[in-house]
Amino acid sequence: MKKSTLSLFVATLILVASTAFAAKMATVDIPEKPEMYATAPAALTPQQCAQCHTGAFNGLKTAGGKHRFDCQACHTVIHAYNPKKANYDEVMPKCASCHTDIHGPANKDCASCHNNPHTPRKVAMTQRLATTCATCHAEEKAELVKFPSKHTNVSCDRCHTSHGFKPSCFMCHKPHFKDQPIEACAKCHSVHKPKQVTYQGTDWNQTCASCHSKVAAKLFNSKARHSKVACASCHKAKHGYIPQCTECHKAPHPASILTRFPNCLGCHLDVHDLPSMK
């Protein structure tokens, strides 16, 4: 066989083999639709983003706070991450693009507390955060220092296990009486100065009776008008306050009697068990 004939034969074999290979690769005949690429696409909506990024969407929905706006307001560059380029930090939005140093210049590493930008209102109570509470909550810190109690010696994260979490008093304390409503606690005790007992309202006689049981039993069994009066009506707004009779009873007797007996308790021996007046 001549050299030229051999070359032609080889070329023919290559062409046939290539055609056969190409036929195997093109197993599906998909018609071209260039009109689909004639118009630039519209920006994705948050609902469209959520079709893939369900976790981020649900986080924003439940705890997104002020971050609940269009995804692309932050993510100006999308689907551009390339592991070979290691450009994650480059394409991700930066907190400083919108936020100033709202917690002071010493707290610029936002992610140490707000570790998920899609749930910014969920802030873990880390040790670092627990030691800087007073930066924002100065009033509460001042109360703990000015009015020392066992709460003063407890770290903030003992009660506030996450930022913004307000625990139930019953997590640590037993109620004063069975079925006491949790609302009753704060009516007398301010959590950051609990020993400074004050009264808000006058409907907590059962709470008073839990400690002052003997006095309460005497008062509640009395037929005098004092038995119908709330404890806080006389003992005012501060625990331990002892009122004067004249705060309610201005001049119950003639001046001649009041001059001879200026001390009411000289005759009315027990304010919690006065003789009934018919």
Automatic annotation (TrEMBL):
UniProt key word Chaperone: no
A matching Pfam family: Paired_CXXCH_1
Keywords linked to the UniProt accession: Signal
Signal peptide interval: 1-22
Keyword DNA-binding appears in the UniProt entry: no
Domain Doubled CXXCH motif stretches: 103-141
Protein name: Cytochrome C
Organism of origin: Geomonas paludis
